[in-house]
Amino acid sequence: MLSFFLLLFALSGIVLNHRQVFSSIDVPRGILSSSYQYKNWNSAALKGSVEIDSTQSLFYGNVGCWLYDKTADKWLDYNTGFPKGTDGRKVAKVIKTNSNSLFAGTLFGLYEHNNGEWQYIDLGIDHQRITDLIEVNDTLHILTRSEIAYLNLTQPNDNIKISLLPTPADYQGTTSLFKTIWVLHSGEILGLTGKILVDLLALVFVFLIITGLVWTFFPSLIKRAKKKKKQTKNKRNGFRFSVKWHNRIGIYTLVFLVFITFTGMFLRPPLLIAIANVQVKNIPYTLLDSPNAWYDQLRGIRYNSELDTYFVSTGKGMYALSADRQKMERLPHQPPVSVMGINVFEEKSNNNYLIGSFSGLYLWSPIDGSCYNYVTGKPHVPTKKMARPIGRYMASGYHASANTEYYFDYSGGVKSLKEQADFPQMPDAVKQASPLSLWNLALEIHTARIFQDVIGAFYILIIPLAGITTLILLLSGFWIWLKKY
Known about the structure:
- By secondary structure, this protein is an alpha+beta fold.
- Helix content is about 30%, strand content about 25%.
- The chain has a domain at about 1-35 and about 170-290 and about 445-485.
- The protein contains 9 helices and 27 strands.
């Protein structure tokens, strides 16, 4: 049983380390369990919308872009131009500029809609995952996970300027222990070289599993063959090879295998709870020790013209960015945002903002710090429990139309706010055109969530139990080798 889980973890880990390489490969949702079927626009199928005209709206999210014509009650595929595969059309934000241009920020970069298709715009940086888009004074602000880019909309698309956001006064050169363990476990801390090294360790696990099974079962198979007077040479050679190289490779890589196993155990509950709120110093001379204080931290941005200030949602909270973009300060009043990051960031009246994440949907004022649950209307009461927990209302998107508002709950799908109103059903054409990416399937396997429909909530015990068992197996194997050799 352990061999089965370790094979799954090893092979899925290789896929997780190279998302763009496998991005064109999808898996039909029909072969997966019920948790992976779209129902009522759940699982972040839709995140937001842009009104094209009085009868048409462009919706976007994990299913890509779809144009809804409310007059004909029809959904039209609007994904032409995006790369092949579900990952290539995962859209974080679509914006319609004052000049009626359409831009989309996706998992793999920036696109503009021209001549009936999306056309890629190269930002000229290594990691082009877009998290948000806004327009300010004829300039498109393009927020990635680490930088901000500016595109003057009155000039050609090759006038992009890249900038780092200023280091805040409260910056201490720290990273969450979770993030530190994550990049250590994946090898990302050393860039592509580190990822390849961890891939090799995954292959070592596969080799040790296969040779270990040969070591375990071949002796009895050889005995049976001898009794039946069958040829055993190949089995004996395979057994000798397995014993020899199982020992050698196991001993040479033992420390690294223990390290990978141990770190992996802390990336999922229940052990994750122990490190959820811990901050540690950045490891010198590594990816984490970046001159950019906002490396992999930026999630959303809005400009408030009345206050002449930008509000920036980051992995470390909400910050105010000065209009000249030279100073950035953490706001004293923070909205509730889950550790998974912000999903809804909409400006409402009176300098209030609608903030949505897996912690819920809230109406928040950065001025006086007031915060109300937008679903229940009740004031938000901060909790002293684990920081930024997952709440009852897992807001993954938002849409407003005429006098109605909807939010997209990650689990339950589209829900009407304030006034009961029907939202168009998710058509089969959208479902059929939206398989699960191989990378996402690998993530479900690597986190053991793939087993939740079989054993329920007990699936969270698979990672720690498999980890502890693997550590015992590795260390006991080393002890036996010491005694024998």
